[in-house]
User: Fold these one by one.
Assistant:
Number 1:
Amino acid sequence: RSEEKAAAAAALKPSVKVGGRFFYDVADFSQNQASLNQVGDAEDEMRLRWCWIELGGNVLENTTYRVWFDVAAQVSLLDVYLDFGELPFIQNFRVGHFFEPFSMEQLTPNKYLETMERSSPFLLGRNMGIMAHSDNAEANWTYGVGLFVSEQGSKPPFYEGDTDASAITGRVTYLPWYDEASDGRGLIHLGAGYSWRHLGDGNTQFQNRPDSALAPVIVNTGLIDADYYHLAGLEAAYVYGSFTLQSAYHWVSVDTDNFGSESFDHYYVQASYFLTGENRSYNRRSGSFSNRVVPYENFFRVRTEDNYICNGLGAWELAYRFSHDDLNSDNIFGGTDYRHLAGLNWYLSPFTRVMFQYVYSNTDDQVASNGELHVFQTRLQFDF
Amino acid sequence: RSEEKAAAAAALKPSVKVGGRFFYDVADFSQNQASLNQVGDAEDEMRLRWCWIELGGNVLENTTYRVWFDVAAQVSLLDVYLDFGELPFIQNFRVGHFFEPFSMEQLTPNKYLETMERSSPFLLGRNMGIMAHSDNAEANWTYGVGLFVSEQGSKPPFYEGDTDASAITGRVTYLPWYDEASDGRGLIHLGAGYSWRHLGDGNTQFQNRPDSALAPVIVNTGLIDADYYHLAGLEAAYVYGSFTLQSAYHWVSVDTDNFGSESFDHYYVQASYFLTGENRSYNRRSGSFSNRVVPYENFFRVRTEDNYICNGLGAWELAYRFSHDDLNSDNIFGGTDYRHLAGLNWYLSPFTRVMFQYVYSNTDDQVASNGELHVFQTRLQFDF
Amino acid sequence: RSEEKAAAAAALKPSVKVGGRFFYDVADFSQNQASLNQVGDAEDEMRLRWCWIELGGNVLENTTYRVWFDVAAQVSLLDVYLDFGELPFIQNFRVGHFFEPFSMEQLTPNKYLETMERSSPFLLGRNMGIMAHSDNAEANWTYGVGLFVSEQGSKPPFYEGDTDASAITGRVTYLPWYDEASDGRGLIHLGAGYSWRHLGDGNTQFQNRPDSALAPVIVNTGLIDADYYHLAGLEAAYVYGSFTLQSAYHWVSVDTDNFGSESFDHYYVQASYFLTGENRSYNRRSGSFSNRVVPYENFFRVRTEDNYICNGLGAWELAYRFSHDDLNSDNIFGGTDYRHLAGLNWYLSPFTRVMFQYVYSNTDDQVASNGELHVFQTRLQFDF
């Protein structure tokens, strides 16, 4: 009996895969006087941006788990969840700490983004919660809807308070066109998301940096006294071979204590092109570009089976993004900015990438107009 | 020679198993006015209680090691030890940071406890030290005795001081009855423990929460100036099929600087019953319920070999515990409490458990009498 | 196409090896009155010195990576790098956070040092940078040269500042004699290193402890206002069977703001002998003793194939080191010290070592002369 039980337990034992990723960033800044007045001197910086340790696997046949944490500075938790699959009606059910289902940009893993940082000041990040979601690799649609803690104390992920700090967030995506034959080298993606967020602590804040985690904050509403806010988003993407066009619009309306309803918004338009012929890799499970880009040839020499030496270029990708933040409302003046980003990404292998990026940002706030901040940044990225 | 040596080294290479566990807790509280006066408002809370990363394995034939740490907040170290086995006379010898050999409740891994938290305010936790202990899966007794650092500075585990902050701790257990045929579905366990603790820093403190890590402290002696204290414990458990009865009594006597010898105590009585027929799984190596409970059927659908779909309930367990703390002595008035705990545990699989728990605690202290605190808490637990 | 790509990606998937190491240290101190005046009372201490988690592996055929971090206290990052190999001319190229190429003592992994701590106050440690280096297991020379961030902010590894805080560091080693037949049981190693370091923050500091991480600092220049400094080193080692002799000289010249050029130096001479016949294991890739010592017999009993029980002693090694720090210059008076270290190392297995060590240090500084500090320390070391 005991041996049978032990054997049965062993057969069902959770699998464990250990992985990780690290990103090294270097950024230089150049500013005009208006920008200096707005944000002070942006000092050049070199930094280990992320150093993630990733544990995950399967338990039984249809449940997956993740324990991911960052050790670049203090330990901070990333995905820590259980995901139950193959459920009737809802397909999947996830419990833990993970990304709320909002924004294709957010749901694209950072290691697969065309750019070093995401664009929107309204991303929700990871929160504690529960989520129903689809998970079908052959569907032309996805959905996700969940209940989350809308704000968190300091680490560990927790919320304490007798008031209700909860959020309801949902997203649907649809593919009017998906070219099966080429495995997604042609597709049109449409999506919409919405989040209703009650603020237990009675305030919220929106801010953004110029497409660089090492740059200073350029627009910032400061703390806004409010009990809840609405966030809505629309997104679209178009892939045609090596070319990708992608755009999103985010709109926020905050029910403030002092001024009534105040609204802010953001949009971006982004294009990328693989000079070496590869394509962004769309994942129909998640409705985002969350599959790995595999270069046709690695940069490193590899010896083929018939003993030739193959000396590849790696994959090379051009990227451009225009984005615009408007954090001014009728009574709150967080500033506005627009940004041009130009990038060149070199995939040495499926696991190693070097990114070169230039950003021009132009900010208007209550201090000055046309604050110009130029960012020159480089990243070495590796994941395993 | 060098290749031989390399081969020999490889053959002896330590094995490495990577695992972990995470617990998500939600607790709501309700209090009467006396409790509000005693402990203030207990705010509802949601928290990642633990997130452990567990490395461990074997080296050579008879030595095991563990490096376990928690990353839920800051990194904190759990088990970090080497355990040498198959030694003459003493059987095993352990060096490092690990649980002192005291209290069945303490030595039961948190993932296998019937309740979300342990009951006693006098548990010793993990400390740096050395321990001789038995490790025999077929014996009807166990022993453990060790020398430990009786107190620690802040992290990393260390002690600094010219005074001696050491403790001697021991525990013996005995099984007057153990049903081999059913692999322990019937047993009687008896145990006793003792610790003598010299306090290098010249003080100690005892406190407790009402069976919930998210609840406030309800009884608390405050710092007691003292040079050493004695801790004694008695424990018993009875398993009959799916039914388990378990109890322990802890008694502390502190040689205080100001009042002479002052004593405190604690006891609990705990019962549990598996509605679905499983049983608590006793481990004769450690003298505690530290083996995994494997549900007869998992909650998830599993497809059997002959292609039927088997739709199991998982395992369901009822638990009840009465406990009592007395932190009042002749001259120190830390308060007294008694608690009723009722719990329902649902094992979805051997690795996943959801716990529902209600606790009623009644506290008398110098501020008020009959402070009533009700705890409603839920846990999602997963380990891999 | 997609399956081919997936298969190709899988074939190239990075390998992941998980390992670690932990060191437990206990140190007792004894001081004369002069030492008490100099450094105060050195309190006895017990400490988890290190607890490293080590992830690493290969990607493609010629690239290796490491993500190592310490969790003994807060998380702190150790090696986090990518190393590209088999490159024309330079052989290897490394990017990330790793040891600068200076000093055989520094480049010997702590788990393979004869002593518990390194000797020199001028070691550079790990820094962010890039390095070209050789990596040839059969060469009689090595080189390494790199560009590094010469100072770092607090964690995470980063540097922020518009001034240039960079360092150029290089090292070459040469083996005039290496006995191939015995795999290095006879060799002569010579090496030289140099580092030019620009100080972005405008100051630097040198200090040292008496061969014990748990002891107080005994010599200390304090902060020196300076823009750059030079560091040079010479090293030599001689292995003859079980006997090893090793020495290094480090010399620093600081271009101070207030006094012009000020210089400090350090040297040590170290001998070790394996009573049980093993030898220090030189690694020709790195030009240091960074290969594992494998005892001829493990301490633990092992059962041989023909069923005899073999009861080995483990390996036993004697070590002695004389070292001298001179942190006095014309205008800066950090103190001078000399130290005698006597050690006995017991290798229970290739992975487990117990170290016993006595250090006598004699310090002269501006407070007192002939401050005598005696250190009695023990370490339990394990790696996996």
Number 2:
Amino acid sequence: MAETSRRAAGRRLQLPLLCLLLQGATAILFAVFVRYNRETDAALWHWGNHSNADNEFYFRYPSFQDVHAMIFVGFGFLMAFLQRYGFSSVGFTILLAAFTLQWSTLVQGFFHSFHGGHIYVGVESMINADFCAGAVLISFGAILGKTGPAQLLLMALLEVVLFGLNEFVLLSLLWVKDAGGSMTIHTFGAYFGLVLSWVLYKPQLEKSKHRQGSVYHSDLFAMIGTIFLWIFWPSFNSVPTTLGNGQHRTALNTYYSLTASTLSTFALSALVGQDGRLDMVHVQNAALAGGVVVGTSAEMMLTPFGALAAGFLAGTVSTLGYKFFTPILESKIKVQDTCGVHNLHGMPGVLGALLGVLVAGLATHEAYGDGLESVFPLIAEGQRSAMSQAIHQLFGLFVTLIFASVGGCLGGLLLKLPFLDSPPDSQCYEDQIYWEVPGEHEDLAQGPLRAEEPDTQA
Amino acid sequence: MAETSRRAAGRRLQLPLLCLLLQGATAILFAVFVRYNRETDAALWHWGNHSNADNEFYFRYPSFQDVHAMIFVGFGFLMAFLQRYGFSSVGFTILLAAFTLQWSTLVQGFFHSFHGGHIYVGVESMINADFCAGAVLISFGAILGKTGPAQLLLMALLEVVLFGLNEFVLLSLLWVKDAGGSMTIHTFGAYFGLVLSWVLYKPQLEKSKHRQGSVYHSDLFAMIGTIFLWIFWPSFNSVPTTLGNGQHRTALNTYYSLTASTLSTFALSALVGQDGRLDMVHVQNAALAGGVVVGTSAEMMLTPFGALAAGFLAGTVSTLGYKFFTPILESKIKVQDTCGVHNLHGMPGVLGALLGVLVAGLATHEAYGDGLESVFPLIAEGQRSAMSQAIHQLFGLFVTLIFASVGGCLGGLLLKLPFLDSPPDSQCYEDQIYWEVPGEHEDLAQGPLRAEEPDTQA
Amino acid sequence: MAETSRRAAGRRLQLPLLCLLLQGATAILFAVFVRYNRETDAALWHWGNHSNADNEFYFRYPSFQDVHAMIFVGFGFLMAFLQRYGFSSVGFTILLAAFTLQWSTLVQGFFHSFHGGHIYVGVESMINADFCAGAVLISFGAILGKTGPAQLLLMALLEVVLFGLNEFVLLSLLWVKDAGGSMTIHTFGAYFGLVLSWVLYKPQLEKSKHRQGSVYHSDLFAMIGTIFLWIFWPSFNSVPTTLGNGQHRTALNTYYSLTASTLSTFALSALVGQDGRLDMVHVQNAALAGGVVVGTSAEMMLTPFGALAAGFLAGTVSTLGYKFFTPILESKIKVQDTCGVHNLHGMPGVLGALLGVLVAGLATHEAYGDGLESVFPLIAEGQRSAMSQAIHQLFGLFVTLIFASVGGCLGGLLLKLPFLDSPPDSQCYEDQIYWEVPGEHEDLAQGPLRAEEPDTQA
């Protein structure tokens, strides 16, 4: 009981203090640095001669809202598949993402739109911040159920900085193309989370095994997440690309790729399933791999056939990963990957980066015409050959893997700080530790919660 | 049993008759008065020389659809948190909102777009009607579970008229700015509903207390509502503002404000929670207060820092309201506020109005440049000082509170008409009174429903 | 047990083989035929002198995304009302629709955008493919719970071809107007599915009756589908119409029509309900009939009053259909219509076609002005009178009914192929046959699944 009260006191203080501290810090930084950009400022917008219809808002905001829905509805509900962790999945998603949107506006702003001592913001910074939140939520998926909210906020605090730095190196130093973030978002977020989970390895996690599965309706809640991710992924990959044919082609390629990953997921899931039955986990996740795998190349002249082939491959690899590789990852490599982010974001992200290498290497003036300037400006200007662009793309993948791994290590060490409130191995995947849960579940939970065991993290 | 049959007969007739009567009346009024406007009429649109791309549709419809999702998905599911009132929450939302869209098209049309004997409609009237539906659904939240559908339709019949009148006074007589409706929607809807709930006070409501809470999955359904409100609030506040920088800035400010109200909600919820646990009610509601509080000022040069500060304050006030003020409101002031609309819409709405007073009072030609004309036309034209605009804004708040209070009183008296089918105090928050509910819940409900008690309303 | 293993082996092979075969075939056809169109190709787009803002993407993509949400979220969850068929409803929706999007891109492409040996694709082909998926999912609704996924894919394989052919006859040979598809989508999809269900008649289906109802939370999941269909239907009907006033007016008419069908649904549902109680099935479905019934005419000068009247009628007919006609359809005509698609898509679709006949017949140069060219080009060019257009519209309905009936027959015969894995009459509406279902439901299901009976289909 003393232990319980100590933990309750810790909970009561840690999360509020951290929220207030972080919010205070970002608010001060906002006051000092953040300003409306030309497209959002009343005075700046009216300088010069242009039509209201030219405002960037109209070209990006509808797709931004699709991305926003993916981050909050998609990721939030996709992770609600656990039978007793729905409050945390959805609730911590909104908490983590809300902080990330603020913090990443600052970090990405310093790297990308810092002029004359100020960061200028508008719909593009909203999009970029949401993208960063995507990476943070992917990492969250790897450690879902095994960390408290204060730990998660600290993870975001670190990850956002490394995300911004990695993105800056790729996009602004290496001039790598990665519109939909196969590298910067999916590969980075997945390996950051996986390495972090490896550092946080919980040897007695099987004591929480009975809570690690789904129930019938929690799987349907998760399908809400899946479907919103599925339908809006074309907007995700296309929202930051060049206007006109760029956004249009990217959306189209992503749409095709997802249809193919869906078909291969159903095929493989039934093929490897017990008695030929389909597995909901595969449909919830691997069907989405087609969106990840064209994150780099959907902007390029991938061709509709190329999109289908890529999606098909990604769905296959992802489904097989869930079936065969996740158990090995846990037992042999000691990486406990709650949501299987290695299968949905890790492997398809790396594949997507490699596909980008391939498609960039095949770029010709003939295929892109005058559009080459907007997709591969350095090739169009003669500063790089297609082969050189391909090599830079490949190098971008390595840089990402290094940033993610080092970051994940640092993150794991940070989250192991002994004073942080972390759930014991026997109480993972359990909402009641952090939430007041309505009556019906109390009976189920009182057993393990009353017989509280020493925190194996400490 | 006789009582039960009488009630069943009343139910069978009241709702159908009222629906048919109201639909018949609005249909006739539509036939007489409502016409396509220049942007929706085949003949009118082709007069003059303009591009199809100039049609208002392309500048407002995508954001309108976000608002539409908020009204139906957002409000509907947010109120589905009650364990046995999900059918009514979602079903009556669609019923009430559908009627309001028609009726408000007429009422707002008479006030705002009545020319030559006709009301002209297009995407702006769709937006305005949805906004009015938002106010009606806020009022519904205060009395959720305590009224029947016929009563609710009568409430909407009255409220829409007063909403339209109040909006007309504020926007067209006082020239108050209130794009996202901190006053016209949130303050009006909340206090109308709260006063109405006070008139309808149910002294023996504790007999329905066991149904007033949530169950695990009903809380997750409610989170669907929360998240759709959260993500689309930037569209809600920005959809009626001036094109270009106006919409862009409003969306950006709202986005920041919501992130801050989310952080303060989590901080405060854990701080005041039992054992430091988070309360789902706070996350479902108070996290949204950031959208309400910038409803008036998001259009103005609030600055990104201002948006964060406002959101932070609103989340704090709202969470503390749920924890400490709602019980007092019920026990001392005799206002039973089912959804806590006082905390989500009432106090944040008033705060939002006051913030509008402050930001309007600080308006300068320097800060707004040539954009002053579109935000504060009377200041730009020299007819008002910033201070005068601020005073008008403040006066608008008082007008709103008066309209809402008087309207809520009238509404309460209307809903107390003895022949109206109203649930008895012991059968509130119960779908079975109005819906055929599938088997699983019948056992639970037969007790109270069979031992039907006299209606304390009558 | 031998029977069970044989069936398991069949399951394990049929679905994977079919998925791989179909995906392989469409991929090859994509490689040979499908190319980016002028608006999505990097090189083609940069030929000539036009602004990026002119790209079709910006005029159609936001509404396309609404349609995409309707197909996957709307149809998927609307069909999740069954207590033990949620995985299949949502899962097979995504599978069927994913295949249809690919296959229909090819079929519709051959009919509508085949030039110089290639099919050119962009946002319009995405929209058209989604529309075709809508028709396939309507047919799925008629046979929901009574077929396996391999059967469904074969149905889609056939239906997509007939859908494309029927659409080609109507739109390109008869020059019939049908923007929102009252005929091509709703009437076609419904009667194709109903005739198919009649061929597949399951005489002992009452053995699965206990699974045919909903449970409380499955009805709420279904309401997610309903509401997404309801809010986005204005986008569905308007997305393919001419730019400017065409899209604008179509969205507005649909919006009004849906409000009226909602009011008539509530009125009628209470009027005919047991003890005057509302029926969730009516609200979930009939409230949407207003979207179906203006599918042909919303583009025309229907007038706002006309939209209300049409919606009111459709909601009335649909609700009465659910109450009185569906039982007769099953007992007398031997058509088992799981979702009642006859009431939501069949009758309202036919009514919508007839309304199109009426409104087309009333078209005048005065009412449409210069907009006549874009709504009725043949009338504007003097090649047809309004009466002639009306007669063509009516003929289009007959053609559709013939294509649907013949197609449904062929489809039924195809699905009765004895080697196809079909659920026995006693195991319909049951996820466990095709899915690994988490623990809680196993007890319920083990009875019927263990005592497996001979397949009455075989």
